[in-house]
Amino acid sequence: MDLHLHGKTAIVTGAGRGIGLATVRALVTEGVHVVGATRTVTEELQATGATAVSADLSSAAGVEPLLGWADQVDLLVNNVGGGRGGETSGFLDLDDDHWDQMLQMNLMSAVRVSRALLPGLAARGGVIVNVSSMGAWQPAGPPLAYNVAKAALKALGKGLAGEFSRQGVRVVTVTPGPTRTGVWESPDGLGAAFAAAAGAPHDQFLTQVPTMLGMLTGRLAEPDEVAALITFLVSPLAASITGSDHRIDGGAVKVA
């Protein structure tokens, strides 16, 4: 299927691995010039043929390396996010620094990049996709601060869609459930932390996650599946889709 994306320019944040890297690959395959922003430029990102940019978007200055593309970008994928320890702690053990880290990384990064690029996106009738998390729909922690930040990101997308629709900008949210990335599979990731808290071997714990979370598919999602959804949503074939949240969670969230 031709998604009519050839010749477009996209910025993908959190592009060094996981869903971000898979999205870069999918867009490059469609003929998109991709700028991949990541804190640490990986060999995998460089191998895609995208323009790799080192940017720490958890800080206000982090957006500066992307400003050179502000008047060229057609598509923005706000994918950067994650956690930095404390994910398995209860609410009373989460201090202000933890909350600030989660908000900066998972909400304010998208706020800053979107604010910087929206004038150009409006001039070109562009599209923004914010990558949230299933936890935005079921925010009970842990990881509470992360889930709350992702819920705020979902709300941000809804608000931007309303404000910028008259300028031809579409804004949508993609909400993955557990996906086979380092978040779950890395020995220092969230999955390993949950496994340790449960007193279970990491590999055995991962096999139980789909059942524990009620995933009807019985398996974790693959990054390429999420990337395929993102790629469709930024394409002209999805021109009537805006302001909406698209879950790809294996049926784990049971509300409409």
Walkthrough of the structure:
The protein has 256 residues and is an alpha/beta fold. It has helices spanning 18-29, 43-47, 96-124, 144-164, 182-185, 190-198, 202-212, 223-234; strands at residues 9-13, 33-38, 51-54, 75-78, 127-131, 170-176, 245-248. The longest helix is centred in the middle third of the chain and has 29 residues, at 96-124.
Short description:
With 256 residues, the chain is an alpha/beta fold.
> What summary fits the major beta sheet?
7 strands, parallel
User: How much is the average pLDDT?
Assistant: 95
Count, helices = 8
Instruction: Provide the helix percentage.
Output: 40-55%
Strand order of the largest sheet: 3-2-1-4-5-6-7
- Tell how many strands the DSSP assignment holds: 7
Q: Distance between the terminal alpha carbons, to the nearest Å? A: 29 Å
Please state the overall shape, judged from the principal axes of the Cα atoms: globular
Structural class: alpha/beta
- SS strand fraction: 5-15%
Radius of gyration: 17 Å
Model regions low in confidence, pLDDT < 50 over at least 5 residues: none
Order of SSEs: EHEHEEHEHEHHHHE
Highlighted features:
alpha/beta, seven-stranded parallel beta sheet, 7 strands, 40% helix, 256 residues
Topology:
Elements: E1 9-13, H1 18-29, E2 33-38, H2 43-47, E3 51-54, E4 75-78, H3 96-124, E5 127-131, H4 144-164, E6 170-176, H5 182-185, H6 190-198, H7 202-212, H8 223-234, E7 245-248
Parallel strand pairs: 1-2, 1-4, 2-3, 4-5, 5-6, 6-7
Helix pairs in contact: 1-8, 3-4
